[in-house]
Each structure stands twice: as C-alpha cells, then as structure tokens.
C-alpha cells in the first residue's frame, strides 16, 4: 500500500450526491438555446470541467463554431436555472464518505475538495450537507481560484500549496470523470482514483488508466496507507 499525506476529492459525483442536477441543468440551458443534446452527451464532453468551458466543449463537439458572447449567454442562463434547481434540492454525501473523511483526518491525512464549480455554488452544496472547513475537509479549491481548469493540474497544485504539501507522489486524487484522472496524472499524483458513482462508467474511467476504479469511494480505506 502506498502512503499518502493529502487526498484531493472532486465534489459532485464523488463525495456529493446531487443526482447530476448540475449536468441536467447544463443540458437544459444548452437545449434552451436551440440544441437537442442528451444528458449522456453532456457527461461525455463536459464532465468535470469548469462549466463555461464545458459549454464551449459540448458545442464544439456538436460541430458548431460559436462566438464567446453566445456561450456566455448560455452560461448565464445555466447559473440562473441552477439557482432555481438548488432551492429545493436535497443534497447528501455518498454512503461511507463521511466516515472515510473522518478516518483520514484521524490519521493525519489532509483532505482537499476541488471542483469545476464556482465558489458560490460549491459553498451552497457544502452548506446543504452541513459540511464545515476543518471538519469534513481542510481546504476548498474551485474554478474561481485558478486560471486553468481541468485537466490542468492547477487546482491540485493550489491545494498542495495551501496545505503545505510538497511531494505529489504522496497525493491522491479521486473523481468521477476521465478529466479528474487526467488532472491527477498531470499533477503527478502518486495515486489516481476513478469512482463510478457520478458522471462516467467503469469502462470510461478505466480508459484513463487510474490506479483504481471503484464502485464506492469508501473502499479507499482498504487500498491506501496513511502516514
């Protein structure tokens, strides 16, 4: 078993169960602008990304060249629709996740959350779950905190900087999309993990060649060593 000093977790689909509401809302916003794309298409081309970038990449995959003003208009509508969707949304963590986070804390492993959400959206989700800084996590890094989003390693590197971790070989990155795994590899994390609770399937995640692909994040307790 490889030892770790920092575990970096994606939020939605990995530690936060919000029933894919973000991607369903992204699908709705794009389709309201004149498209007819499926949720699976949104997940395939947009999962794990900063959401304006996701919109641009989805439209590009459709073979349509769109100007920045058009993609921004979709993004602004997405944010409005998401706020409406969140008003009555029940948000939970996945089974065993809080126990895993507590286990890591008790054994001296630092825990970071990173996400393609903006800070306001991320904090809204965390508030709905009752998660607090220093309790379930030690730092939150969002798309607002970096210039380059996934698959660039900047959010992981920012978390390492904030938490005083210098050896990326001692860092684990877990997420529910290929782009999460690519982010971890680009940050030279010692362990990368795909989990099938969110955006993508076992086969899709395995294609990115992570260290592990799991059906439940809580299984990590049996696969890693803590310092």
Automatic annotation (TrEMBL):
The Gene Ontology terms for molecular function here are: phosphoglycolate phosphatase activity
Alphabetically list the UniProt keywords: Hydrolase
Asked whether the UniProt record includes Hydrolase among its keywords, one would answer: yes
Q: Is-annotated flag, keyword Nucleotide-binding?
A: no
What's one Pfam family the UniProt record gives for this protein?
HAD_2
Question: InterPro entries of this UniProt entry?
Answer: HAD-like_hydrolase_sf, HAD-like_sf, HAD-SF_hydro_IA, HAD_2, HAD_sf, PGP-like_dom2, PhnX-like
Which BP terms in the Gene Ontology apply to this protein?
DNA repair
Q: Report the GO terms under cellular component.
A: cytosol
This chain's protein is named Phosphonatase-like hydrolase
Q: What is the scientific name of the source organism?
A: Cellulophaga baltica
